[in-house]
Specification:
alpha+beta; 17-stranded mixed sheet; single chain; 11 helices; four-stranded antiparallel sheet
């Protein structure tokens, strides 16, 4: 694909005209641009996100003088708007979060509105962006367990709250659920299967950005410890012909086999469990400034890279979003590769249709519409997109079907979990790498991890 870029420079084509590289879009469209699913609307969210109420956010200076780091918080709030996030599940560490009054943790500013439940708890705040887009912000925590979308603090004194948020056993999970949250497990690469079975989480993290970057975690994925940072530094180049900084993720993005294998193992044991991709954004990992004047791990950049799509009947109802996550009506998508258009997964049965996360009778059919890249400029090289359907039962995970066509129909002939991965070789991003060459864009990468449909 490097030939495409060389052709641009050399003015290939009739009449000596040049091909202008389409301008890179630093924003994302509304999630509704992905389409609709039988009365369900996609909402884009971030699961695993840190604010100045985490001790290690904002380059370790989250609360100078005891007050939130306002410039860092402003970066986060603007990023939520720029990337059209619909729900942000904050997951702050307990060392600061447990000390604070509940309503402080929403980081409300200006015209933000409280969102209350029927019991009178503040369960979210609502940010109204300059363009009218609205973002729900919910509160949770990340320690050994990662409760998301809590309704209120766990009960007790501040010291007792610290103990509850830091605990890592089934009783702690029950306490967090009683506070209205879902119990997620982050950093699956470092968890044992036995412990996952003991906790019985509501969801797990199949990908974590920090695990791809952190020299201490990369070896757990079988990756060289320091490659991520050294590769990302290439995107700090400010000379003419520098690569598009937002594509820095291409230089270190790798699947997390330990996490995927543990997800499959849980499914093989009959657990019904959705999966998410965790941004783990803190503005604390890649402080180097890239060519666009933003740091490597700027909130805007990281939130642009990937998110988690929930399918809901009413996108203005945060309780429906939480219910969709719990039900597994969701998929993770790396939107740096492009926003998916035309994507759909459902099962057809003798009596109707079932969505992601639902259970259908053996003998149903899984229907997959393989997505394309939304609004792909025809002047760019075409990406290679393929779907893989994994079937998981007590014997393990096997490929039930794979294909690069527009549609797959897969008989659900046996009892088990059927989950879909969409891969992409993003040749269309190669020209934006410019003088760096297209190598990072000429390899197959994950695009979508969809939660399963189950057959019984």
């Amino acid at each position: 694909m490097r030939a495409w870029y060389l052709c641009v420079l050399a003015a290939c084509g009739g009449g000596g005209s040049t091909t202008k590289l389409p301008e890179w879009d630093k924003t994302l469209p509304s999630a509704s641009a992905m389409g609709s699913w039988r009365g369900l609307t996609p909402v884009r969210g971030i699961i695993h996100l840190h604010s100045p109420y985490s001790h290690d956010a904002c380059d370790g200076m989250p609360q100078p003088g005891g007050a939130p780091n306002e410039p860092c918080l402003d970066h986060l709030r603007k990023a939520l708007c720029t990337t059209k996030i619909d729900y942000a599940a904050l997951t702050d560490h307990d060392d600061s979060m447990a000390d604070r009054e509940w309503t402080e943790l929403f980081n409300m500013r200006g015209t933000d509105q409280k969102v209350m439940n029927a019991a009178g708890d503040q369960i979210a705040s609502r940010i109204t962006c300059d363009d009218g887009h609205q973002v729900f912000v919910a509160v949770g925590g990340e320690n050994e367990l990662m409760p998301i979308m809590l309704d209120h603090h766990v009960p007790g004194t501040v010291a007792e709250r610290h103990d509850a948020y830091n605990a890592d056993d089934p009783a702690a999970a029950a306490t967090l659920r009683a506070a209205g949250g879902l119990v997620w497990i982050p950093h699956l690469e470092s968890r044992t299967l036995d412990h996952l079975l003991e906790i019985a989480p509501d969801g797990i993290e199949v990908y974590n950005l920090h695990a791809n970057i952190d020299p201490k975690l990369r070896p757990l994925l079988g990756l060289p410890a320091g490659d991520a940072v050294s590769n990302a530094v290439e995107f700090a180049d400010t000379n003419e012909g520098h690569p598009e900084p937002d594509l820095a993720l291409l230089s270190f993005l790798e699947p997390s086999p330990p996490a995927v294998e543990k997800w499959n193992a849980l499914l093989a044991m009959g657990r019904k469990i959705p999966a998410s991709a965790g941004s783990d954004a803190h503005e604390n990992a890649l402080p180097v400034m890239l060519a666009d004047g933003e740091r490597g791990d700027a909130y805007r950049r990281v939130l642009r890279w990937f998110g988690n799509i929930a399918l809901v009947a009413d996108p203005t109802n945060v309780e429906q979003i939480e219910a969709a996550l719990k039900a597994g009506r969701m998929f993770a998508v790396f939107e740096m590769m492009g926003t998916p258009a035309g994507f759909d997964i459902h099962a057809t049965t003798a009596t109707g249709t079932a969505e992601l996360g639902e259970t259908v009778p053996v003998g149903s059919t899984l229907e997959i519409d393989v997505p394309t890249v939304r609004n792909l400029d025809p002047s760019l090289p075409a990406p290679e997109i393929a779907a893989t359907v994994w079937f998981v039962d007590a014997t393990g995970a096997t490929v039930a079907a794979t294909g690069a066509g527009a549609h797959l129909s897969v008989p659900m002939s046996n009892k088990g979990a059927y989950r879909v991965e969409i891969s992409i070789t993003p040749h269309h991003l190669g020209p934006y790498l410019r003088d760096l060459g297209t190598g990072f864009a000429d390899r197959q990468l994950p695009w979508i991890y969809a939660s399963p449909v189950y057959a019984e």
